[in-house]
Amino acid sequence: MEYDRLLRELQGLEAAHPHLLTPDSPTQRVGAAPLEDFAQVVHDVPMLSLNNAFSEDEVAAFDRRAREGLEREGDQLEYAVEPKFDGLAITLRYKHGVFVRGATRGDGTTGEDVTANLRTIRAIPLRLETDAPPALLEVRGEVLMLRRDFDRLNQEARERGEKAFANPRNAAAGSLRQLDPRITARRHLHFFAYGTAGIEGVKLPATHSATMDWLAALRLPVARQRDVVSGVAGLMAYFNELGTLRAGLPFDIDGAVYKLNLLADQERLGFVARAPRFAIAHKYPAQEELTVVEAIEVQVGRTGVLTPVARLQPVFVGGVTVTNATLHNEDEVRRRDVRVGDTVIVRRAGDVIPEVVASLPERRPLRDLASPLHGPFVMPTACPVCGAPVQRLDGETATRCSNTLECPAQRKQAILHFASRRAMDIEGLGDKLVEQLVDTGLVRTPADLYTLQTEQIAGLERMARKSAENLKSGIEASRRRPLARFIFALGIRQVGEQTAKDLARHFGKLDELAAADDAALRQVADVGPVVAASITAFFLESHNRDVIEALRRAEAWVDGEARAAAPARFAGKTFVLTGTLPNLSRDQAKAMIEAVGGKAAGSVSGKTDYVVAGAEAGSKLAKAQQLNLRILDESGFLQLLDQGDSPS
Ligand code: 9MJ
Q1: Based on the domain organization, do 346 and 231 belong to the same domain?
Q2: Pocket residues: Cβ below 6 A from ligand 1
Q3: Which residues contact 379 (CB under 8 A, 6 or more apart)?
Q4: What is the whole-number distance in angstroms between the Cα of residue 105 and the centre of ligand 1?
Q5: Same structural domain for residues 506 and 582?
Q6: Active site includes 590?
Q7: If you placed Cys at 185, which of 31, 329, 427, 558 could pair as Cys (CB 3.0 to 4.6 Å)?
Q8: CA-CA distance, 527 to 516, in Å (whole number)?
Q9: Residue 127 DSSP symbol
Q10: Ligand 1 centroid distance, CA of 82 (Å)
Q11: Rounded distance between C-alpha atoms, residue 117 and residue 41, angstroms
C-alpha cells in the first residue's frame, strides 16, 4: 500500500536524521514499547455521561424541562442531533495544534493515559489541519471498531483457536487498554469526535453544529449522519430515520444524541449531578442482553442438519422477547463454551435470528462445575428425532442425521417445503397439519399427499369437514405444476428456485435431468461441481426415484420442451410489471412471463419490450409512455401470451 511505502521511507529519514523526528510524525503511530501501567489523568473538565430516554414521552419531558429552564415554554427549541456511537469515550488534548495527550473517561474525573495507543489510530490526527491552531483544544469523542475490522479480528482469533470478542465495543475497549501499543496498532480502531472541552486562544462558534463543522475542517472525523432539527417532532423524525440507517452503518450505534444547538443555551442550562441538562441520549431497544441458558436442545432441519439451540430465560432484546437462540453448530458451541446454567449475551439485530454471542464463564455458578449436566456441550451421537446415527463429514461444520429417507424431522420439513408457496403452492397445508399427517402415518412422502382422501383428512383431530375439503382441493389444484416448480419442490440440496428454473429450461423433461451426468449438468449456467454432485446424488437415491415415480402417477408436474430444442415464443423479450393487476399476483405474472421464455425486469428502459401496468402504476408507466413502449393491461397481457405477438 502507498501509505506503508511512504511510512517506511519516513522511518528511514528519521533514523538518519533523528533531530527531524517530531511527536506528530506518522511513524509515532506504529506503537512504542509496552508500558508497565497506565498513568492517571485528572480531567480538567469532567467527562460526563448522558442521561437516557427510552420513549417519546421521555424525550418530550426532556424538551419540556429545557424550555422551562430557558423560560421559552412556547418555543420550538433547536437541537443538534447525531448518532450515539457504541464505543469508548476518550478525550484528546491538542497544544498548538499538536496531539499531546489522550485519556479514557475512567470514572469521569480521573482516566487513564492511553496516548501511546491513541497515536496508533489513523483517524486521530497527530496535527490539526490549520494555520492558526488554538493554544489548547480538548476534543471529546468515541473510539470504536468498525464492524468489518471486528469481523476480521474475530475470524483471525478463531483460526488461532483463541476466544473471540463478543462485540465491536468490547473489542475496541480491549484493544485500547493494551499496555503494548503494538497490539493496539494491529487492531484498526476508529475515532469520531462529538464535542469539545476546554479551548484557549480561539473562540468557538455559537452553535454545537458549527463547532462540529469546525472540528471536521481541522480533520477530526465527525459523524456524517448529523442534523439540526426543531422541537420534539424533529427529534422523533431524526430518531426514526437514523433507525432505518442503523443496520447499514459500518459501526454500531445504540441511539441518537440530542443537544441544544446554541452553546449559550447549553451553558445556561448547565448540569444535574453527573450529566448535562442540555443533552440526552435517546436509546434504541438494546440488541444485546444478558440471560441464562436453561437447556441446550438439538433441532433437526429439512436437510437433516442438527442445530444446537439454547433455551433461554425470556429476555427482551432487539424489541422482542427472546426465548430461543441459535448456537449454530458443534464447533460454535465449543468455541463459545456455552453450558446449561451459564449467563450469556444474546443478540438480536434487525430481523436476524437471535444468537448467543458469548458466555460469561466468570458468572458460572460454582456448584455447577462438578455436575455432568453443566459440563461442556456434546453433540448427540444419535438423531434426537429418529434415533439413527449422526454423521459429520470431514471438513464440514454440520452434523447430519444419516437417515434422510425415514427421519420424520426431515420428512416433515421436506413435505412443508414441497407444499410451500414458491414450490407446489398447496393452499391450506401448514406446519401443524403436516405434523399431524406425518405423526398419524397418513403421509410419509410428498407423493402420499395425492392419494389422501377427504375422509382421512377430516378424521384428524380438530379438523373440520370444510377445512378437509379445502385442503383436498388445494392438493388437487397443485397437480400439473410447471417443471421448474416441481424441481424446486423436490428439495434437492443446493438447488434453489433460480437453479430449478435454469434446470427446467435446459433439460425440459424431468427424465432428462435425472439422467444427466456431471458434464451434462455443468452445461447449465451457474451449476458448479457442488451443485452437480448434489443433483446426481439425489437421483441416484432409489428412495427418491420411488417418490418421483409416485408423483409421476399423480401427474404432479408437466414436462416442457427444453429451451435449446425449441426457442420459446417470447425468448429474449423483456417485460416490466408495474402497479397492481386486478387478478394476477406479481409472482404469477412473472411465472407466466418466464414460462414463455421472457424475462421480467425491474426497471423500464429502451430495451423493454412490454410494460404490463395495473392500478396505481407510477413512474415506470410514465417512463414507458415517454419512450413510446407497448403498454398492456392484464387482459392485453393474457391475450398476448395466448395468441403470440402481433405487429403493433
Ligand atoms: C456518543 N456516545 O456518541 C456524547 N456521544 O456528549 C455523543 N456522546 C456526549 N455525544 C456529551 N454523540 C457527553 C457525551
Answers
A1: no
A2: 48, 50, 82, 84-85, 142, 194-195, 257, 279
A3: 298, 306, 308, 330, 390, 392, 399
A4: 12
A5: no
A6: no
A7: 31
A8: 13
A9: B
A10: 9
A11: 15
User: What's the Rg (C-alpha) of the chain?
Assistant: 32
**Alpha helices, DSSP H only, in 461-600?**
465-477, 483-489, 497-507, 510-515, 518-521, 529-540, 542-553, 586-595
Alpha-carbon distance of 310 to 328, in angstroms, equals 10
DSSP class of residue 47?
A: -
C-alpha cell at 631: 403498454
Q: Give the residue, out of 86, 194, 259, with the most ligand 1 atoms within 8 A of its beta carbon, to mutate for a pocket test.
A: 194
Backbone conformation region of residue 441, classed left if phi is above 0, alpha if psi is from -120 to 50, else beta = left
Query: What is the tens place of the pLDDT at every residue in 272-321?
Result: 877 899 999 999 988 888 999 999 999 998 788 999 999 999 998 887 89
Each residue of 173-217: pLDDT tens digit? 999 998 888 889 999 999 999 999 989 999 999 999 999 999 999
Q: Ligand 1, from 50, 249, 280: best to mutate by most atoms within 8 Å of Cβ?
A: 50
For 443-473, the three-class secondary structure string (H helix, E strand, C coil) is CCCHHHHHHCCHHHHHCCCCCCHHHHHHHHH
Task: Point out the domain boundary residue: 218, 251, 283.
Answer: 283
Residue 18 lies in a domain: no
Distance 154 CA to ligand 1 centre (A): 27
Closest ligand 1 atom to residue 48 Cα is 13
Pairwise CA distance, residues 165 & 173, whole Å: 10
CA of 101 to the centre of ligand 1 (A): 20
